[in-house]
Amino acid sequence: MAVHPQPVQAPERVLSTLNADGSRRWIRPRPSPGSWWTRRRALAYVLMFVFFVIPYLKMADKPLILLDLPRREFTLFGTTFLPTDTLLFMLLFVSMAILVFLITAIYGRVWCGWGCPQTVYMEYLFRPIEQALEGGFRGSLRMDKAGGLAPVRLLKHAIYLVLAMFLAHTFLAYFVGIDQLVRWVQSSPKEHPVAFMVMAGTTLAIFIDFSWFREQTCLVACPYGRLQTVLFDRDSLIVIYDPARGEPRAKGTVDRPEGLGDCIDCGMCSRTCPTGIDIREGLQMECVHCTQCIDACDEIMTNIGKPTGLIRYGSKSELDGKKRRFLRTRVMLYPIALLISLGLFLWNLENRASTEVTLLRSLGTPYQMREDGTVVNQVRLKFSNRNRDERGYHISLAGTPDVQLISPINPFPVTGGHTLTTTVFLVSSAASFENGQRSVMFHVSEGRGFDRTYLYRLPGPDDRERRMLEGEEHGEHEGAPDAPKPGSGH
């Protein structure tokens, strides 16, 4: 007789989104309108508006933000960065990382609760639609217990899909530009299958995130919650519960014995939490500092005639009865490091060349040998004109009179803000190559301040190939009739 093993029950809940038997625990938080909720909602709508409108804005006749991956060009606030701007990218990313460290050291996980798209769209777009359709958080709980897929939830998912599609198109506009996106939308997907698949995949990812994965993105996928353990200190601003004032807790508000704390154990702080934790258990990785527990607790304290602030913004030092120190080692070192990295970024940005010139080899053979013993090299010059107007770039060689430069278009015109490539041909003797290469100096100028010289090594015949070529020429000379010698009488 087969014995079926009994499911193993965990001694306690591992994640707030998992029941003890391992099944999914759906979080249906009770909204707690309050002063913090009002501030966060106003900021959330501003952030949504900014996200939607940025693709339509321009600065210096360029998109405000455009991350053009196929062309490897990144435009930020009217300034275009190229793949060769490695130092600028490094300094920019370092500055952003230091800024995140500084903000976290001072204000804790303010990004998670106030600015993260996952929180903003979940709490102020998708979840309000859910509660409006399902009859509030209690209606959602009743549907969870009833099981099955109610028609109202089918309608909710249909609305979620439309919103996900809109967000995916807006997100895609940051990478292709709004003009290109409009053309794609108005044409058949067969004309741009790759872009259509990217948009469809992004839509599906957003739909799954906000309809099913939800708060698990913060609890499981996002690494920032784990990084907070090394970015916080005892004086960082966090959402705290004051156990000295609240404990020992007990239910009820009438005839409370002496010695009890102000916490009446109503559980509102847990029911309103979008990640399903109990803030009274102390600082936890799952806490995104959304302040919903503060608003919920303040409302309860006001109703029972107690002062607000049992749950509030504070620090671990304040819980220990000490004064929170704002100036401390990391808070002083982070701004210094930020000023250095940001200063270097701005200095390099201000002093970078108005034109980026990249020398590339030909796409075909590295060089060609002519019958007359000369070598022909093709060199591609890629011009990235960062100026607003068109510039004409004159190409010449410096210090190599034995090399002939053939340029089909010289000066080479490049429209402002664009990148174009031209091909030039260099003709030189095989004898000028040593060990299969020789150096030349390209001189590029445009007459309005840009004047640069670039070293380039031409590939060519090595010593063996050159000796073979010279041998063939010498053999042809010996096979010809003898030339008359002076004084021979011929």
Largest sheet: 5 strands, antiparallel
Q: How many whole angstroms does the radius of gyration measure?
A: 35 Å
Give the integer mean of the pLDDT values.
88
How many individual β-strands?
Answer: 16
- The residue ranges in which pLDDT falls below 50 over 5 or more consecutive positions are 477-490
Tertiary shape: elongated
Which percent band covers the strand fraction?
Answer: 15-25%
Number of domains: 2
> Residue share in helices?
40-55%
Please report the distance between the alpha carbons of the first and last residues.
Answer: 121 Å
Helix segment tally: 16
Computed structural class? alpha+beta
How would you describe this protein?
With 490 residues, this protein is α+β, with helices and mostly antiparallel strands. It folds into 2 domains: 14-352, no CATH class; 355-473, Sandwich (Immunoglobulin-like). 43% of the residues lie in helices and 18% in strands. It has 16 helices and 16 strands. The strands form 5 sheets. Strands 8, 9, 10, 12 and 14 form a 5-stranded antiparallel sheet that branches. Strands 13-11-15-16 form a 4-stranded antiparallel sheet, with no helix packed on it. Helix 4 packs across helix 5, helix 4 packs antiparallel against helix 6 (151-176) and helix 6 (151-176) crosses helix 8 (193-213). It is elongated and about 110 Å long. Mean pLDDT is 88; it is low at 477-490.
